[in-house]
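We store chain and fold; example below:
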Amino acid sequence: MTSIIPFRPAARVADLGVSEILKISAQAAAMQRAGGDVIILGAGEPDFDTPDHIKEAAARAMRDGATKYTALDGTAELKAAIADKFRADNGLHFDPTQITVGAGAKQILFNAMMATLDQGDEVIIPTPFWTSYADIVRIAGGCPVLVPCADTAGFRLTADQLDRAITPRTRWVMLNSPSNPTGAGYSAQDYAPLLGVLARHRRVWLMVDDIYEKIVYDGFTFATPAQIAPELRDRILTVNGVSKAYAMTGWRIGYGAGPVDLIRAMAVVQSQSTSCPSSVSQAAALAALRGPQDAVEVMRQSFQARRDMVVSGLNAIAGIRCPTPDGAFYTFANCEGVLGRQTPDGTVIGTDSDFCAWLLRDHGVAVVPGSAFGLSPYFRISYATGAADLAEALARIARAVVSLRPAALAV
C-alpha cells in the first residue's frame, strides 16, 4: 500500500501562524453561534457603515462598466486624489510615479518588504506592534528586531534605543502612529530625535504606517516623518489607506508614497501576486478622498467618547492600569495587578494570555493579550464597537476581577 507523504510547508511559513487576533475573534464568534452571550472587542474594525456617497460611487462605477482591470498599482484618478491628500493634509508633494495603490495597507507593507529584503536583513520594530509586521518581515526573508517600549515612555521608541538596535544588517525601521495596539502617537517633537539618528545611518530606510492618521484626540497634532525631515524623503515609505478613517475595511484599498525606484520594485511584486486592486474599490476610495469629510469627524468624535469611557472604566478596576491613547481605537491596559491571583474555580492567572482566555471562557468578553503584540502583561480592547456593548464588557471585566482571590488564600 502506498503511504501518504505528509504535507511540508515552506520553511518561510513553517513557524508562522494565523494572527492571534483572528484566532480569538474566530473562537468568540463560534461561541456566539453556539448561543453564547459574547462581546467581541478584538477586531480593529470600525462598527460604522461606509458612508453612503462612497457606496454610491462604487455602484455608479459598476453601472458604468468600470469592472475591468485597471493600471497595475492604481488608476490615474485615484493616484491624483492621493497626491492631493498628501499635499493638503501633510504638505507633501508626490508625483504619481511615487505613489502605489494595493489591496489594503497590509499589501503595501508586504510589497515593500518583498521588494527590498534579502535573507537575514534586519527590520527594527518597536514593541508592542501590530501582529502582522514581524511575520511579513519573516516571510520576506528578513529578521525582525523587536525593541520593547515601556508604557512609562508612552510606548514610544527612543533615539538611544534606535541607535543601539541598528546594525550593519539593518534595512528598515517600522513606525506606526497612532499605534495599533496602544493608540500612542508620535508628535513632530517625538519623531525629531529618531530622524536625527536615521540621518546618521544613511543606509537605513524608514517605513511609517499612518493608517490611523484621522483618528486622533485631545488636540494631538498628527505628523509624518517625510514632512518633518524632507532631507530623508529619498528613503521613507509613507503608508496609509481608507480602511479606518472611512470605515472601509472590506473594500481593501491602501496606498503608499516614496522614492520612484522603490515604488517600481513594489509594482513588480504586485504584478506577480494580486495585480491591480479592485476597480470598484478604487472608485469608492476616490469618492472617499474627494468627497465630503463630515463622516470622518463624526466617527472620530464617537471614538473619542468611547475611549474616555473605556479608559475611565478600566482604571476604576483594582489591578488594572490603562494609559490614555492619543489616537486609533484601542486601549492597551496593564493587567499585572491581577496576575498570580486565583479564579473561583481554582485556576491561577499566571499571564495576560491566561487572563484574556478566562475573560472569554467564563465572562463572555473577547480581548487580545499583550503577548500577541510582543509586550506583556497587557491586554488590548478595540473600542470600535457600540457604547452599550462597551459598558457591558467593562462591567463584566470588573465583576471578573472582583471575583479573583489571592492564590495563597485558596482552600
In short: The longest helix spans residues 294-315. The first strand starts at residue 39 and ends at 40. The chain has 14 helices and 14 strands. The radius of gyration is 22 Å.
